[in-house]
Amino acid sequence: MSELWLDQVKWNSDGLVPAIAQDHITGRVLMVAWMNREALALTVQENRAIYWSRSRQKLWRKGEESGHVQVLHDIRLDCDNDVILLSVEQLGGIACHTGREHCFFKTLKEGEWVAVEPVLKDPDTIYDK
After folding, report:
1. Which residues bind Zn(2+) (predicted)?
2. Is residue 99 part of a domain?
3. What are phi and psi of 44, to 5 degrees?
4. Per-residue pLDDT for 2 more than 80?
5. 23 in a structural domain
6. Are strands 17-23 and 84-90 parallel, antiparallel or unpaired?
7. N or C: which terminus of the chain has fewer CB atoms within 10 Å of its end residue's CB?
8. Domain ranges, residue 48
9. 14 appears as a binding residue in the annotation
10. Are 57 and 128 in contact (CB under 8 A)?
11. pLDDT tens per residue, range 29-85
12. Is there a binding annotation on residue 79?
């Protein structure tokens, strides 16, 4: 397969593009992460979400430690060519490193961010410390 499709993505000055992971059935936004060119190409090749970890400065295969893999169902590029939307099946039902279904579990109430989604699994039991 030609890599011309990768050239059409508008990468930021760090060579990254934001990627939104969305549940392929419910449409719920699960998380937002970053991809570099290699991560995006591997995501398509391996049919699973692979991101670039800015904190670790390395590729991050979602679920490599937790088992909570994101199986790719569809991939889209926005109208400005600078945001990727991944439609995924979230294996294990947990996308967030906090042990929740998704990363958007805080809501603004009376000027404070309040967690309103339950922890489904204690993160200490998911990740080796």
Report:
1. 79, 96, 103
2. no
3. -70, -45
4. no
5. yes
6. parallel
7. C
8. 4-93
9. no
10. no
11. 999 999 999 999 999 999 999 999 999 999 999 998 899 999 999 999 999 999 999
12. yes
Residues 52, 60, 6, 80, Cα dihedral to 10° = -50
Tell me if 128 is assigned to a ligand binding site: no
Tally of structural domains, the chain: 1
Q: Annotated binding residue at 23?
A: no
- Hey, which residues does 29 pair with through a beta bridge? 22
Give the span between the Cα atoms of 30 and 94, in whole angstroms. Answer: 9
* Ligand-binding site membership of 96 (annotated): yes
In this prediction, residue 129 carries a pLDDT of 52
Per-residue pLDDT, averaged over 2-27, amounts to 95
Sign of CA dihedral 103, 107, 112, 118: negative
Whether 17 is covered by a domain: the verdict is: yes
User: How far, in Å, CA of 81 to CA of 75, rounded?
Assistant: 12
Q: Would you state the pLDDT for residue 123?
A: 87
Q: Are 113 and 107 in contact (CB under 8 A)?
A: yes
Q: In which element (H, E) is residue 43 found?
A: helix 37-46
- 103 annotated among ligand-binding-site residues: yes
Q: Are strands 112-115 and 50-53 parallel, antiparallel or unpaired?
A: unpaired
CATH number of domain containing 60: 3.10.20.810
